[in-house]
Amino acid sequence: MAFQRWSSLLAASLGIFFSFFIVSCFAEKAPYKSFAKDAKTAPSSGFYDYIIVGGGTAGCALAATLSVSAKVLLLERGGLPYDNPNVTHIDGFPATLADTSSTSAAQLFVSTDGVFNHRARVLGGGSAINAGFYTRASNDYVREAGWDPHLVEESYAWVERKVAFRPTVQAWQAAVRDGLLEAGVSPYRGLTYAHLHGTKIGGSIFDENGYRHTAADLLEYADPANITVHLHATAQQILIKTPPGQRAKAYGVFFRDSKGGRHMAYLKSGPKNEVILSAGALGSPQLLLLSGIGPAPQLMAHGLRVILDHPMVGQGMSDNPMNAVLIPSPRPVELSLIQVVGITDVGSYIEAASGSLDLAWLQRTAQDFAKAVNQTLQTFTMPINLTIPEAIRAPELYQNPGVQAGVILEKIMGPFSTGHLELQSRDPNDNPRVTFNYFQDPRDLQRCVQGMEIIKRVVESRPFYPFRYPFTSFQSLMNIMLAVPNNLRSKHMTAAYSMEQFCLDTVMTIWHYHGGCQVGRVVDHDYRVFGMDALRVIDGSTFYNSPGTNPQATVMMLGRYMGQKILQDRNAR
Fold first, then answer.
1. What is the pTM of this model?
2. Which are the catalytic amino acids?
3. Is 212 assigned to a binding site?
């Protein structure tokens, strides 16, 4: 029996290998004109081996992998990243996040904590709108997840051949690197994708010319004959059979195109065909709820039929708190996003970015955000301020449209604090209501304070001296940050001299939120939804903690990793 099983697995692996060899000869380059089409051109119904909802960081890797030996449909509610200059080039990063239109690649949402946030609405997902840092999870994280380390290594390498690049470190980033070392964040690890304590330079999905390479690029691995991508396709509901006395089973997805046209995608008959949700930490639990899978009282309150009472759907939502200081520079600084990181021993990661900053534009953007929030049904769990005040602490900065400046920030690892997600309406285009409970656990607040102390030492270090004005105190930098409209939370006078209150009042997102469909609570270790057949969730919603200093490498890896696992099982005899 053992020999037979080994032989079947070997045969399956060889089959996958040769399939990839064949696909490599016929792979199509982006923008995939033969298989990526607007959903308005989609048939009213179609049949597939796998239907993947969400063409994001995990979904693109997963779809490309499965297409090697199965018919795959990938549904993406946004468009292509390749025809949007704000997405494709590093210069457009702030403009993408500032766009509050209904077609923006970055859909604004505000948590009930009063913190601005975004969810991707574009092929490539978060990798198309983020700051581009590329780094792997730690070996401890891989071990705790129960993943096969050899397959993890192969999967990371597969991703990196398409999207990972070595950044060119210039003066500002070099000063941050050297300042971290002087501040005691050692040893120096050089350039590495590995998650190692100390100071290091990570990879980037921006190439040497500043062009972004997203998870959508991984579709170049796909077999064009086996994959269909529908763009501007919004999943409305998972189609589920509930035969008496048997487990509920997914058999398709109902979706609409941008004009509201109805389309049905069905699974072909076969015991191993599946619907897979890769819609992210907001989209995946939201679609489960809309499909009748979740806490029964919440579903009934929205008039939804309860298919499966699943109390843990939408629970365990976490967002890693980010706090920062803005540092005006007396000398020009390069345009840079995240390149250098200090992985500290106190549970925080120190990172930096730089460029020319128009703070008046930033204030107008915050006002636009507040106006957008006013037009929703948003509710909050704490006192907030929907009227963005004029700057009072640093007015001269707001009068200069091209301030040369940088930001040094910290991300809290974990975090310990958790919240929840629930439906705001039955419309899948609406954001769900999300509470992250930033700093609810005092250990997160302690990490923030310790991380800010390290940032203070970096700013006051000798290598950083050329990038701060004479007589600049860290207190004055905190005051600048308190004047920047970076969230809707009320500011307290004590935040000017209490680091704890500063952390609470100026908290932001670093867009690494996760949870809602966690392993062991909503899905098993093969990412199958408990109590359901033919339904999995494979994305960051399954995480308990954010992997490494940036999760995107690991989410892409997970798509590839699970695609291989699924194919091995499919091809095994």
1. 0.93
2. 512
3. no
